Amino acid sequence: MRTIYVVGIGTGSPKHVTIEAIEALNRADVLFIPDKGAQKSELADVRREIIARYVTKPDARQIGYAVPRRNAANPDYGQGVNDWHDALADIFSVLIADVPTGGAGAFLVWGDPGLYDSTLRILERVSIPVRIEVIPGITAIQALTAAHGIALNRIGEPVTITTGRQLGPVQIDSVVMLDGQLAFLEADPNLQIFWGAYLGTADQLLVSGRLGDVAQDIVATRNAARERHGWIMDTYLLRQPQ
Ligand SMILES: C[S@@+](CC[C@H](N)C(=O)[O-])C[C@H]1O[C@@H](n2cnc3c(N)ncnc32)[C@H](O)[C@@H]1O
């Protein structure tokens, strides 16, 4: 049996990496690094920096793998995701076969493996039996609220975590992730927004205020940053006015 560590690495700062994560990475014989293409090479660079800083195991190997793109043209979203996971499971099976029997491999997962990440679901589909161990990481949500110096929830109140695609009228304070469509532009302008991009990195950007007052500032900041980096990851909290 092989052990696979699914290690949350935080959202871009090597300082987000926990001691538990460092220990797991140092138990791995093979470290897997996803490559999402030239435009997003900074994401692979962060993982390499984490390994260079923290992994002292002399014989640990690093194996990069190209992440296939999901077919966004598939009108059946669920089927598109399912096919994409199947393709990734085939890649994972090949990668895991490179881990010595009785040894360990590690996937360095952005943020926390339990939040909008499919590594665990894909590992359920691999053809090789493995023992899975998950190491939690700092999520974009924690990085967002810490950067703004706010609590996630109001006293005793719930919070919804959703995607731009799923954001409807905001009845409950909502954290929005994976929003390529700028869903906040459709929301009640009297909501408060706490927005952040590249959270945890040296390029972190923050905007907050009444949505109606700052929405266009966020759009302009977002567009300029995306142009500069070639990619953007942003997260925001929409909160009912107090
Ligand atoms: C596929 S999800 C991964 C979430 C990750 N597992 C986590 O725990 O935060 C990608 C989304 O996370 C958010 N995200 C991840 N890293 C971020 C960062 N450094 N700054 C802002 N948002 C980030 C964005 O909403 C992005 O679209």
Automatic annotation (TrEMBL):
Keyword annotations: Cobalamin biosynthesis, Methyltransferase, S-adenosyl-L-methionine, Transferase
Keyword presence, Methyltransferase: yes
CDD domains: Precorrin-6A-synthase
Transmembrane portions of the chain: none
Pathway assignment: Cofactor biosynthesis; adenosylcobalamin biosynthesis
The Tetrapyrrole methylase domain, residue ranges: 3-214
One of the GO biological process terms: cobalamin biosynthetic process
Enzyme class: transferase
Catalytic activity: precorrin-5 + S-adenosyl-L-methionine + H2O = precorrin-6A + acetate + S-adenosyl-L-homocysteine + 2 H(+)
InterPro entries xrefs: 4pyrrol_Mease (IPR000878), 4pyrrol_Methylase_sf (IPR035996), 4pyrrole_Mease_sub1 (IPR014777), 4pyrrole_Mease_sub2 (IPR014776), CobF (IPR012797)
EC number, UniProt record: 2.1.1.152
PANTHER family on file: COBALT-PRECORRIN-2 C(20)-METHYLTRANSFERASE, PRECORRIN-6A SYNTHASE [DEACETYLATING]
Protein known as: Precorrin-6A synthase [deacetylating]
Native source species: Devosia lucknowensis
